[in-house]
Amino acid sequence: MKFGLALVGLGLLAACSNDGNPDLMNIRSSTPDEFSILPNKPLEQPEDYSALPTPTPGQTNRADATPTADAVAALGGNPDALTSDRANAGEGTLLAHAGRYGTNGNIRTVLAEEDLEYRRKNNGKLLERLFNVNVYYDSYSQQSLDQQLELDRVRNRGVWTPAAPPDPERFE
């Protein structure tokens, strides 16, 4: 009887323990992310103070950090094209070819709804759902591409594929 009570008490005491990593106990989610802080660009003295643009309170200024635009400029691109909705000169043909059958503005929403409906219809068997077995790859197996068969087809057409993955069945 005493042994049983001691065992239950030990079990209750063990349930109160903290299983968290002691090295991570002092990390709080309310602290600032030091990697998201970007330093401002250095201040520059303008050549002519009368040529300065009018201040725009609450908007960006010339000393604000713009890492994406700076990277595009460093790689030889046009950082002004990042903010415009128009395509660059070289993208016009590509966009015209991609949209030759029409485009759907809410394609992501449509695809998400169709995917959800497909996965509901192919949700797995009763025991797979009961034990929460991932049936994602089984659901889409009919739509998956046999990469080795496609690789052979492309190589037979003379396309050079130097970085193709090896066939796992050939190296067993």
UniProtKB/TrEMBL annotation:
It comes from the Bacteria. PROSITE patterns: PROKAR_LIPOPROTEIN (PS51257). Residues 39-68 are annotated as: Disordered. This is DUF3035 domain-containing protein. It comes from Maritimibacter alkaliphilus HTCC2654.
